[in-house]
Amino acid sequence: LGLDMEELEEIEEDAGLGNGGLGRLAACFLDSMATLGLAAYGYGIRYEYGIFNQKIRDGWQVEEADDWLRHGNPWEKARPEYMLPVHFYGRVEHTATGAKWVDTQVVLALPYDTPVPGYMNNTVNTMRLWSARAPNDFNLRDFNVGDYIQAVLDRNLAENISRVLYPNDNFFEGKELRLKQEYFVVAATLQDIIRRFKASKFGSTDSVRTVFDSFPDQVAIQLNDTHPAMAIPELMRIFVDIEKLPWNKAWDITKQTFAYTNHTVLPEALERWPVDLVEKLLPRHLQIIYEINQRHLDHIASLFPNDVDRLRRMSLIEEGGTKRINMAHLCIVGSHAVNGVAKIHSEIVKTQVFKDFAALEPEKFQNKTNGITPRRWLLLCNPGLAELIAEKIGEDYVRDLSQLTKLHEFVDDDLFIREVAKVKQENKVKFALYLEKEYKVKINPSSMFDVHVKRIHEYKRQLMNCLHIITMYNRIRRDPAKLFVPRTVIIGGKAAPGYHMAKMIIKLINAVAHVVNNDPVVGSKLKVIFLENYRVSLAEKVIPATDLSEQISTAGTEASGTGNMKFMLNGALTIGTMDGANVEMAEEAGEENLFIFGMRVEDVTELDREGYNAQEYYDRIPELKQAIDQIKSGFFSPKEPDLFKDVVNMLFYHDRFKVFADYEAYVKCQEKVSELYLNSKAWTKMVIRNIAAAGKFSSDRTIKEYARDIWHVEPSDLKIPPPNEPRDAVEDKTLNGTAP
After folding, report:
1. pTM
2. Does residue 460 have an active-site annotation?
3. Does 210 participate in catalysis according to the annotation?
4. CATH number for the domain that contains residue 494
5. Which residues, 6 or more positions from 692, have their beta carbon under 8 angstroms from its beta carbon?
6. pLDDT per residue over 444-497, tens digit each?
7. Catalytic annotation, pick one of 455, 457, 525, 685
């Protein structure tokens, strides 16, 4: 058609239907499940408006609606024939035949299917996203003599359920609409799963009633954090109230079906729904949760008589103030497997956050370290590097990333070293051109590209990076003639619209950037860019061009991280704390091949015990004092000198994430980074050692572990015949066999 494919790709909007790591992980998992030939479905909500588009105006974040469907979505297919009803509100009637949930409001769930192709194996799985629709008799069925026009307009109330994604990452906002969204996706999905089970040969019907004994053998449901936790009482409601199973049998099947993945240990992120809200919206589910809790607590009381504090700690219901349901506790009790997403995180889950539960059932708790799909995060975004690797070790590594270890043989190969450096340089030049076009800042492509991209959050410590930028700036100004390794510092990410401190951090970074980028003494030695509207399509551009990856969360706060893995695979070196998957990256590559600094989890615990006193560090470290004084005095905000007083006040008096405590170690570690960067060959050799050690962090490996340890299914590397070939013509052509 005479169209340019790259130009076409640029026009297409991201489907920004998640917030950060959690949503992106699900996307990588779908890719891996299809590539491994698993019969798996991804279920979620088809939000009309995804994560907001971020604009930076005068250094501040401004949100715009993400109208991603404006030009249509060619990849989805609406499936009105599978539309299902979802009930809300109403009341519970107890009859001779059991409980009945009556007088409910109905919303219809309309599924949209998106194909998920496996990598070169002719497998195509389905992602099914639900959209909310009002029934046609909505507001007209009840004795509504009145306003027909208003009744039709009121359909919006029902359809608002799938209107917009809540933009919080690692933060719980207990809003009624959010709970509606959570139950909506759960109720529609479970009906869909049960319909499919009954239609299959396994759902053998005993006269009229389905036999559900084989249900957990045929169905596995993975709860991606606690957001779909209402699936547990909902499945119980279906089994007990509708299918008339005895409670104990229903509970046994339910537990064998569900498994729960925990994604965060931050207390403010844990879902704790007010009982009165659940009672209003889902009255039958509240009764079921109470019954689950009663039996759960009876069991604990039988094992630990008179231990009332243990009962309080382990209850699904939190008393004191407003009564709340602890959704994580519900997930643990209602699942046969619970996992964290990196070794260190799973340890913290077992020994701290849920230690009472782990003491009770240690065999329930597992680890499944996160991974990323090498299809998107190497082949698609970095074809130059992917090709270079294929020339050395063949193309099989794309499906078996552990084969990257073969690159260790070439770590001293001068030609390979030069080629790896050349690919990185080409990626940097391309990205520098993009930055100059978008930001009107002249970029030095031979400078170190120091990149910190992720959601803006205090625990991720973008502030510590900012203090390092100010420190570098002050060093250049103190001695302009001294050798300085040039850097382009790139920070990007969205702040939740209601998160004041995160928005102040963005403003501070932009204020510092304005001063640094316009100081003639600094020149091309240091440039600071805040990357606007960070999203998957932008990550695909910046990650292949990165030299230094910033993974600097306070030890014990980042459950895993996945950006860290993407940078490693794309030839960046990591500066980071011993947190999340950084620990395992250091284990795989050798700690000497990462720039590890700062407190470990034990040190943070010890510092909490002593009491963290920020003032002490400020008084002891002159460069820290200088940087803080500049922020405080309005050096970076001359028109509004006390603009950043909230930030400074937080750093001194309520910094839960101890920025000052790691500042000195961070700055010293950054000096080592600059020193190595001067030796291009030594730097590139370290890069090659990192790429060679990145194999563990494929989501294919992660999914194989879920499949074997939790779902009890076997991945298949059989290449199914393409649709144009007769079925019986291909008996056992595997992936190695020749494809027709």
Report:
1. 0.96
2. yes
3. no
4. 3.40.50.2000
5. 404, 405, 406, 407, 408, 411, 589
6. 999 999 999 999 999 999 999 999 999 999 999 999 999 999 999 999 999 999
7. 455
